[in-house]
Design a protein that fits this description.
about 100 residues, alpha+beta, SH3 type barrels, 5-stranded antiparallel β-sheet, two-stranded antiparallel sheet, about 40% strand, globular
Length: about 100
């Protein structure tokens, strides 16, 4: 009986964890913000999704350190910090990042 309860609890806990795609080792390092446009900025957010608050806007050419990436919904979000100010951390959409 005890094994059956532990198995049921383990199964419930495993199904409650959201599917997160692990970052590939090749995707880590220095990246540049690209494709945002001259009159726009890439939003660095407090979490991996558009529902999180915007920390700062980043223009094309901004250099970031990418720490990890995960898929949330249909978008891959990367945990990043500014290359020149490592204490400023947040999440950006991977589609605007280019490996340097």
């Amino acid at each position: 009986m005890r094994k059956a309860i532990l198995f049921a609890l383990s199964a419930a806990a495993a199904s409650a964890v959201p599917a997160v795609e692990p970052a590939l080792a090749a995707s880590l390092g220095r990246y540049e913000v690209v494709g945002v446009g001259e009159d726009d900025m890439l939003k660095m957010r407090a979490g991996p999704g558009t529902g999180f608050r915007v920390i700062v806007g980043l223009p094309d050419g901004t250099v970031l350190q990418v720490h990890s990436c995960q898929r949330t919904g249909g978008t891959r979000w990367c945990s990043v910090s500014l290359d020149e100010a490592r204490s400023l951390k947040g999440y950006v959409s991977e589609q605007y990042l280019q490996k340097m």
